[in-house]
Amino acid sequence: MLLEEDDPNQTHRQEQDSRCRQLIGQIVHARKCNKSFFFLDVRVDEQLKCTVLFRSDDPRELLPQRLSDSELAAQWRKVRRGDTICLQVFDPSQEEVSRRDHLVYQAADFTVLTAWSGHVPFPPEPAMGFKQSDVASHPHQQPEVKLATAVAMKPASDQVSWEDYCKFWINSHRCLKKDCQKKHPTGEEYASVQAMWVKERTQVRKERSKMQDDPHAISSKVPHSRRALIFCRWLVHTFGKDYLNSGTGVLDVAGGKGEISLFLTHMFGIRSTVVEPKVRKDKSYQRRNLMEVIQKELDIEAGGDGRFYKRIALSSPTGQISLPCHPNPESSGDGARENINDDGCEVEEHDQETIKKERKRLKKQQRDQFVVPRLNTLLDSQFEEHHGDMLEGASILIGMHPDQATEPIVDMALKHKKPFAVVPCCVFGQENPHRRLSNGGEVNTTLDLIQYLMEKDTSNGVLGTMHKEFLAFDGMNIVVFYRPSPTESSQ
User: Fold this and answer.
1) Where are the beta strands (DSSP E) in 254-373?
2) Residue 475: which residues within 8 A CB-CB, separation 6 or more?
3) Residue, of 209 and 59, whose pLDDT is higher
4) Residue 19: is it exposed, middle or buried by C-beta count within 10 angstroms (0-12/13-18/19+)?
5) Tens of pLDDT, residues 206-225
6) pTM
7) What is the 3 state secondary structure string of 44-58?
8) Is there a single domain that holds both residue 62 and residue 126?
9) Selected residue with higher pLDDT from 104 and 309
10) In a domain? residue 115
């Protein structure tokens, strides 16, 4: 009788499983090095700490447990410093062991036994690190922060070295480390160092966020706070006022406070409706500030200096924001006296009070009329059912950094053969694991999301081709859009 031979792979797997052991300890340090590697420093008791590696790029065969990149990301999301956890650990590669003077293990999962219950964040302990000779050569060690031009970031002043200062203290005026050896400046020194730090970190962020194909120089981009105006100008230039104003007008999905719709309506004369599930309470100072921005831009377009609105003695009697008349240079100087009327006669004191009251009333009337229609709902199947006429009559669906609404905007527009324009930002890849690129890749970055949206154009040309374009503002500035052809517009 023939005896069944032992499977060598099965035997090796059993040997690997037998080497797994249980480890219980508190997470005292954690760091994610890249999408395929992170590590935890775990305190087992007062005298013993060890490092536990989690990786999806381990080339060894027949591991007790193997992780994909998405599974590794799910494990990282569970990590909370201060939690007491239980792990099934096994031996890491000899290369990882040789680089450390302390115990090191590898794992693929852990269970939280006791969550950190402190009222303040757990103060992390310093990383256990590598042997001194291997620090520079370790493949997962992060390089020094550098600009996109490959020049190391240097402080604005030669007298200041960032290595001497605690970055946590500079950022938040707090340091949770008990034995921190870095400088913790106060007073004027703190303000000066923080200002330089913020300026240079902002420059680094801009350099890193600039896409390789972005034609706009960093110096030519407007601040993030003006993105709504830039987007509106682009919409008008790309689609035209008449087209945007057709039907029921623009649907501004996930419009938040409604800045884009306010610009479109009160600056460009284009009807726009905000679709936003969150009920927001308008603040008068926000509307006032936005009104002033619109008046300033209109004045500049009319050939003014952008400050005419500040010199208007009385608002329009209708209370509407309209194109300001360019002031007479001889009579509209900053030194003009408010107590002189148009005839050059001095105004009585009680008349001045009347003028002030009337001015205040008209300004309030302006703010009250400085609104746009709002629908507090999601863009979903119920929206189609309850607001079908609004959807079918809309000229375009738009979204500026609409977060979770990005894909629904595109899907709804394609379903109803409507043009759209979205500026994607956040990806929410963990909430949408079904997303896949045409090459099978996962959608984890904003560029992945943009490519994923562009690949949705599978209607055999019925809707034409999707396009993308860079806008001239800081941050995520790629707009994905579909513009109808002349024949489709006529239909």
Assistant:
1) 272-275
2) 209, 224, 227, 425
3) 59
4) exposed
5) 665 556 676 666 666 777 77
6) 0.61
7) CCCCCEEEEEEECCC
8) yes
9) 104
10) yes
